[in-house]
Fold each of these.
Amino acid sequence: MVEHLTESQILALAAEQQTAPEPLRRHVADCSACRDKLAELRATWLLLGGWQTPAQLQTPSDPWQAELFARVRRQHTLLARWRPVILRVAASVLVAFGVGLGAAWYSAPTVADDPSQLAAGSLYLEHLSASRSVDLETALGAAGATGGQP
Amino acid sequence: MTPERIEPVDARTDEALAAAAHAGEHAAQNELIRRHYHHVAGLAYRLLGRVDTAEDAAQDVFVRLLSGKSAFAGRSRFSTWLTRVVLNLCIDYRRRKRITQTLPENIAQCPPATNPSDDAYVSQRIQTALARLPERQRTAVVLHRYQNQSYREIAAATGWSESAVESLIIRAYAALREELKDLKEK
């Protein structure tokens, strides 16, 4: 079975974007189907070239350039004027954030500082101890009843 | 017609010129414009369809380039990066409706050229045919046919895969072949 050229290969031949390898050229010479496709694509390729870029877009006009440089100067001026302000504001924000963070960390209350929390903690510990004692007595009592096995 | 190769007057690379231009060197700015205006304005024209809008878009591109607002970071070729800036700007223009009309309306307002051998007629038919393509196909075929870019370069500029670019271009040419088959090649 004849392996025809791919669309991409035919397009590359039509566009002459690459030097076609000899096998491709030989195939086109021998294969009418690929030759016809190539002719069609080549015609389309050349036809599309009929849409030219307008002359005024070939080179920039003097007014266009003048306006461009004026805009670039304005950009540079704006940046030169505002950069120190932006940097100062950014630095202030960072310092304020850092100080706030540090202050928050330093002054965060601990359990040892709060008497009500201390009291609550103690009650909880006592409750835990009491619960464990009851469980232990229950376990020991049960062990005694069963001859030493809990 | 493929873009002519412009021989540089200044021997510096585009990358070096971009850095010098950003620093305010006028000679570097002029050289960048001399080298790339045709490519930038031409691409903008083919994507937006109007000369005045293409000039505005080209100026926006160069303002970004020369002021450093869009800084070339050296991660790709300069021409690829510049193409990407133009493509993104043209997308912005269309989204912000900076072009008040789409391509077919632009063409409809031109004096109709009915003589098939008239260059204006051929141009109008080509523009209409391109305008009818889906946007990605149009972008791909414009870069391929009018900017002479390979699939790899188009993929790098657009962020699409090479296989996607190949598929878009093949479909675009097939559609254009069908749309323009009545026109004789000059």
Note: The CA atoms of residues 99 and 105 of chain A lie 10 Å apart.
Amino acid sequence: MKHLLAVVLSSVVSRVVSPAARAALAAALVVPFASAQDLLVQASRIVIAPDTVLTDGQLLVRQGKIAYVGSDIPAEARARATVVDYGQAWIVPGFVLASGLLGQERDLAEGSLAFTPDLRAAEAFDPWQEELQALGTFGITALALSPSPRNVAAGLAALVKPGSSRKDAKQGGQLAAPELQLVLSLSEAARNQEREPTSLMGAKDLLRQTFTAAGSATQGGPDLAVLRQVLGGTRRVFVHADTFAELSAALDLARDFRFEPVLVGAREAEKLLPRLVQQKAGVVLGTLSPEARLQQLRLPSQLAQAGVPFCFGGRPDQLRLSAVLAVRAGLDRTTALQALTRMPALLLDQQATIGSLRQDHAADFAVFSGDPLDLDARHLGTWVAGVRVHGDAPKASKPAATSSSTAAAGAR
Amino acid sequence: MRILRSHVPFATACLLAAGTFGTLPAQEPTPPATPPEATKPAAPATAPTQPPTPPAEGQGRRPRRQAVVLEAGTVHPVSGPAIENGVVVIRGERIVAVGKKGDVEVPENAVVRSFPTGHLYPGLVDAATDAFTDAGLRGDGSLDGGAQLAMDLHLRGDRDDELAAAGITTAYVTVRSPATMRGQGALVRPKAGGFEVWTGHENAGLQLRMTNGPGPTHALQRQQQLDGYASTFDGLEEYRKARTDHEEALKKYQKEFDEYLAFHQKKKDAEKPKDGDKPKEGEKPATAPAPAAPAEGPPAGERRRGPGGRRGEGGGGGGGGNEPPKPNGGGEELEAALTQLIAVLTQDPPKQDPPKQEPKPAGAPPAQGGAPAAPAGDKPTEKKDEGPKRPTYPKAPAKDPQKDALLRVLDGELPLRIEAHRPDELQSALQLQQKNNLPLLVLEQAYGAAAVIPAIAAQGTSVVLTEVLPNSMPEQYRDFDTAALPAQLQAAGVPFAIATGSARRASLLPLMAASAVGAGLDRDAALRAITLSAAEILGVAKDTGSLQQGKFGDVLVTDRPLFQSDCRVLFVASKGRTEFEAK
């Protein structure tokens, strides 16, 4: 009964209130996050994007965004700003996790129904949740809070950012984008013996029927409206699939209904590389662990060689280690760093605001004592929207005359 | 007993047979004769541990094993600062020189391997791995302290065997079985496609589990279990005393038995009839010396052969006892000798009461040798006024391999390696060391060690850490910051090593050390933790763990600094032999 009421209310709100208004409403729920004071952030190495590196670089942060980069910083702004000097450290774009539950498995899936594409993960967002606040300790500045793969069509993901867990400045997280991709699931988790579908073929058939219905009708509820957005190319689709059969089923649906899927998990993706390339599919990998099979550790480099866009995913606390293990198994560093930053932003269609430190992007960055892809580099701090959410404050000093230069990625 | 003429042919046959095969020793079986052209057993597949002995002078010199010179952009000896453009010279199994190129003399005809941009390190030392063990051994809950893991190691045929390719040239093999006492781990030297157990280090540590792992347990429940470990060393001194007493008793037995034999031999010699006198009926003939009286049991470790009594040796019936008597004047003397021999063979054993039937303790070995001691009060066969009593063979105490191992731990010959996770478990381990004055204690997987570091440092305990990769702990241990632990141990002066814990992670050993650097550990200390410090904890630092003259030629060459994630292994040598080379 409770669920039915929630569905009805959600349906009414989505019909009555425009998307822009809904976003504004969501933003209003967020405590103002950005710092009022300009910040001049400097370090011996600033990775604007994996292919753009500043040595002895500077960034000007204003209202939570990157206002200027390097030599573009006006002298007046430079003089007024508070200096944040990280000395010999490396500054990289904050890591982006393209899919995560933050431990809210139960609240991010409607267990009694398998098909709920219009439910929104933003409805379950808790800005003070411990797992959200901990993201900063792992260098993660943005996460796509995703409905659970327990449902065949679980709902819409939301982009969230961690707040500050510092004792001297506690601050809740923020909901950066309330409606992102539609999350589907053909994985074993979606096959439930207590309700339909109970099999992979049942799950595939359910999606096929609903996509067909959405394509052939103009009326229908909010669930079909979401599917029509997918068919119209205005909404991305993430599909949880691990095995060859599951991946094949996902690619079949994508081919038949003409959308470009992002496959989450994709444990056996190496068996379908040509299809992934042909259908322009993306991949969000699961956690890579030290005990993983060699084939699993080599998958990122195989995807890179085949030209399949991919990013690292899985457990937030293992995100950096996953990238390190992939480098150890043969992936080049530039691609690995890209798979932590810009690529997940691309797959989430959020590359205009996160994933790099270009002008007008969010001032979300992580600071390390060296290359973050080397484990001997100490994680010094994490900043979100120009606010330090993790790590100690560096020494403030007068800004030196900049001599920043741009270098191609890979020049170490 | 009357000697019958019908016995003569039988006795003759016996004498001839004895003469053919020569004198039999008194107690030990005759080793089989080795034909002069017998070949030596084939050399084992593993490399020999000792270099070949050069021939004696004047017999032609065998060529010395060719020297190998390794040049690298940077040499990291570990025992000293890094050397730019360094050189390591290896002859045979050992390093003969380390230094800067140009400062080190390069032997003539040496094989030179050059890695201009490479980094040369000592071969890595993995202080804990499960390599070369199978699932059966790892899950064996019936292991005890006497189990020797070295006896059950073998290749698994998968990448878990590739320690050498990862640069590991020494490894301590153990298993985390569910048993409490997990046997004795072994030191091995990984090789291309295999391994060899390090001679002399087959039993390199005694493993004890003092934890139930991360599963939910109540502190009181854990404390009850931990209290049970306090009795591990109980009864050891009594066991040691029993064995020592037995050894003393054996010596005493041997001495008394020798005296007993000597007395009776002397007596028999005195009873020898004069030449020409025929032996009276019933008397023993004089031509052949009387054999020694049959013993109740041979000395420890020896077994008797044949029926009846011991075969005498030397003049006591051996020199004459097993060889046919030389003919000295015809058939009558021969017949007399044969008659005497028959008398010996058919002599009744000394009378003694039948042994008491005493229940044997479980596991007690069978009594060695012959009849058990005569019960108290039994009269000796000899007359009271004729010589020493026949001594009774001392009964050996039941052998207990686990107690033997524990005694070696008490004596400082074998380290005790305890797996303990939580602070209360670690405290119990330290109390066990203190109570029993254990010289060598190594704590494994000491995740909660931060809370007890002062006690660890005070007791001189070493630590081996395996879970130092970031955020690698199970949920129940999330509060233990194991990545930061190495730095804390270093600050307290506690000897520690970083180990893989699993063959599957062999190639990640450098990354584990790098992770510790990222959490605050000094870079040199991190390198030491996977080389020299690990060798020190394993007791082999004089042979490996650093690039120093006299140590084994165990080296690893990489294409870039070891702690970088994309570091590639280019070359690995173990005792100067190439075990891996990148294509």
Note: Chain B has a mean pLDDT of 79.
Amino acid sequence: MPLTDDQIQHLFRFTEKKSVRSYDLQIELVDHLASRIEEEMEADKGMSFEKALEKVYKGFGLFGFAKVLQEKQTQLQRAARKIWWQEIGDFFTWPKVVLLALLVSVFWTLTQLFPLDLLYIGFLAAYIVAGLVLLTRTVRYKKARKELLLLKFGGNHLSSVVFFYQLFVVSMSDNVSAVGFCIVATVGVLIKTASFQLYRKVKDKAFTLYPEAFA
Amino acid sequence: MKSNQQLFRGTLTTIVLKLLREEGKMYGYEITKKVKEQSGGSINLTEGALYPALHKLEADGLVQVSIENIGNRPRKYYTLTKEGKKEVTHKLEELSVFLTQMQTLLNQKPGIILPS
């Protein structure tokens, strides 16, 4: 006998009480609990919904949903790193390698036309502006009404911040060179592009799988 | 004889991938039931083991997910990706080699003979 809508909503509230607030993981756990409860209550007609839930929840072990939640977060971060590195790697394969070569040529040409310290400061400013522009573009994506682990852990990569700090330090030093600038600038563009691509892919996946979370 | 659950922990990925290859599309609880059914009740795949394994397979790009509404609730289904289908074959070959090696090793020791 299938559970009622009220009982299903009770299961969603149950997962939330057990510290699973993200909708994407809740769906999976609620379906699992519901399927098992339905089976238990079918096998023992006298068993109440609450008793069946208590029995089924024990199957998740001493720590309940904590292990599943922790592992999900870890795997989402792994997947994000994998996508991010794939995006970087794409620039070293056809056809994006042509873009990479063009980028390096443009930066090299700039080093022949302008003083290096000016170029570093200019690139730093452009990097900040690009970051703000990308931020406004990503903010324009519809905000999720429900929390999703996919967005919380699957769409971020901290390298951008680290690189920005290193670039800032380099731009303040005296030992800059034309080759150095080309490398730093090219790497900066790759990192920004990879970060944006990662966020876009993850957001698209979230829209496709969980449209009700954005309604 | 009930099987030692620890021995099966290392083969969980292979078991799940093989089931998905056979069945096409499955959801979490369905996988635990199938494993129990096909092992004659001797392997009890716990929720604490299954879902981390599925999430890892998804992060590795070997399975993909889809959500379907089954009436009173949404359900997450898992299917193999193209890479996942290749990986099943590879994993089964690995396991077969391992079992052959174990058989050889254990049958070489006096007094330790695997039941045929």
Note: The mean pLDDT of chain A is 87.
Amino acid sequence: MLARVTTFSIAGLDTRRVTVEVDIRPGLPAFVIVGLGDAAVREARERVRAALLNSGFEFPQRRIVANLAPAHLRKGGSGFDLAIACGILAASAQVPPTALARWAVFGELSLTGELRGCRGALAVAEAARRGGLDGLLVPRERAREAALVDGLEVAGVRGMHEVGRVLTEGEVPPLPEPPDDVAADDEEPDLADVRGHRVPIQALRIAAAGGHNVLLRGAPGSGKTMLARRVPSILPPLSRDEAIEVTRIQSLAGIYRGDGLARRRPFRAPHHSISASGLVGGGAWPLPGEATLAHHGVLFLDELSEFARPAIEALRQPLEEGRAVIIRGQQTAVFPTRFMLVAATNPCPCGFASEPQRCRCSQVDLQRHARRLSGPLLDRIDLVHTVERPSAAALAAPATVTSSAVRADVEAARERQLRRLAGTAARCNAQMDAALVRRHAWPDEAGQRLLAAAYARDHISARGHDRVLKVARTIADLEGSERVGADHVAQALSLRGADQPAEVLA
Amino acid sequence: MTGDAAAVAPRPSETLGPREPASAQGAPAPAPPPDGPSKRQRDGDEPVPCRGCLRRTWLVGALAGRIEHARRERGAQRIALLLALDDRALMEAVDAPDAVAAAYRRFDRDAALDAARRAGLDVVCRHDPRYPERLAGLPDAPAALHVAGGLERFERLTGEGAPGVAVVGARRASAYGLEVARGLGRGLAAAGVTVVSGMALGVDSAAHAGALEAGPTIAVLAGGADRPYPASKRRLHAAIRERGCVVSELGPGIGARRWCFPARNRIIAALAGVTVVVEAMARSGSLITAELARDLGRDVGAVPGPVTSPLSAGPNALLADGAHVIRGPEDALDLACGVGAWRRPGAERAAPEHLRALHAAVAAGAGSPEALARQGVPIAAALAGLAELELLGLVRRTAGGRYEATA
């Protein structure tokens, strides 16, 4: 007999529909899986056999062939276990074959017959609904994730015996409760925890308002990491579309927390020993990297100068285009990477350049240290600020701001930008191209004179010129001014990166 | 400005010092005193640069490695002794390879001059009237100088009428030191003074760069004049070749050994009438150059600095020993040309009204927006004000991100 089961494979951040066909006929007992499966798929034979037997089902002693169609696409992972098992049950009439016409299945089997979760349940659920199926059988621990999709009946099953009941009697178990630990860490880090640091908070407020990438310089222990962690709290809340995207990415990366759509913007802080593929995605399948996990959120690179050059170079395309394209043989995966970059670095080899009493570095040391930071990356950083240790008085004083207050300003500024940039490809000031800068960020006469003076004195390069204008536009937006004035330009200049061309001769 | 060679007492130092006191000064004007090192005599009508001087220059370059070996084995004192020997004795003392001895015998003056010309260098030997008077007074004056930039320019920059000031100092200078050195270079060159230095990292290069903004400068290198050293100063080297002079005691292509640096420093000290030390650690080459200058009877100036900075330990010590205080180009000019010789170009820079308080705060040490905010300045005003002050040149940003008031 022949049975057909619908399941899905994960390709990058997308899913592909896979039809598992199971054919059972008389002949020497054999169990063959075809369809370009990888090692995990081939091992499914053992898992499926043991799982069926241990769940009280019969394993047909006949010739069984399972085909994963379309046969020319590579398939990988353990998510096909359940589909193969159901196909065998249907083809051997242990469950009604018609049941599998409305249920898609997805999951890994253990030898005992229990189901185990795999990553990507949300994406699979979306694909199932798009593909016209009414229901999805998934491991219980992924049920809440799959249930986020409207219009799909989700059966979260614990093992094969429950699967049998669903398919035979239509008995769908209720959804499990949300996990306990999710509620506990609802406390997002807030600016109210910060003491002192009034100017860096201003700088981050500007960065968040315009979506500008920012570099924080400062001695070890000066508070850069603490400040960086609070940036997501001052960004506008996720829109529904953004939340769905973030949740899908988390699901596909296997880090979904299991309670509804993502509510907070992601904050990713990879260690500087990370590789290029860890950062932007890669590997055999390929898997998304940190840059994608930070999509719609913040990517924090602490100790920027310690990151390997290939890793930093790999970030160029994501920073420039907002996506990473990974090509593997016949597969091309496109991972979205629209994040805000926050980087931190020590100002000099000894780390204390911002404290003149303690720093022992000469100008040569400082210049050599500055050269270690990648040029192309610095080119995409709009704001650079030096963070100093708060004074004792500041540490003792009460908090100066709360995240919600700063976020309100940021949201208002972003509103202005969305209105102004409607119909263009840019959604915030940082994304403006040269033409948009000319049209929307050009300063008044006094501002132009100031900028020209800075350019003439070689304080900024040509690229830096536009960067300063973008930041000035954001500062004007924060102050509610439609005009970009000299004051805004001046503030932007003092927050600029050190892209001055090296002194010509000395 | 021309020291009397006989009056200089030999002092043990890490340089070529005279072995025997200069004697027999009574020779008639055109011929050089037949003293100490080498047979640097020349036949009356031989064209300059003469074979003897060229050969001597070549020999020292060819034996540079051996001489360096001798320095390492037997100490710096040995160098002075060695270089005081005449050609044959020198070859014997360092155990010159046969190839060198053979080449010495076959030395071809024209070939040597060709090699120099191909490297873009002119050669001036002791017997040439264009050889700087101030160098001729040295007991162990270089036999010949290889010069890039043209002998006419060289003569103009080192002649009687051209005051010269040497600006030397630490390689790992602070932002303060670099700024002062640059300002000295600029101010001196603008007043027509020749700035002399060694093109090393730090103070030397800053002085050259400043000078080039307003005029020519002379760089004296430890190795061949055609090789930029350090390599990172390639562009500076090219600029000095184009507008000033690059000079060396060694031939084209010779790489500098350690013993060459103190040797070069004596030339710097001798070429200039005044030596100014900008920043120097307590036991550094720059201080030795100053000592040389004093030995030659030249004036020594020093730029004071914070007593907490190890880089100002050197100059401050010189001041305690009686060196002249150099607060800027005017003081150096007073030393070089006599008091009142210089006119300050342009008016004193003052901060505009609305920035005066901010400027004062930065000058008093509030070197960042955070520090200013702590004093009650609104953040936006601090950010904007610092940017404007920087544009006006009244403050500068150090590589560490802090702001400092400029001198």
Note: The first strand of chain A starts at residue 2 and ends at 11.
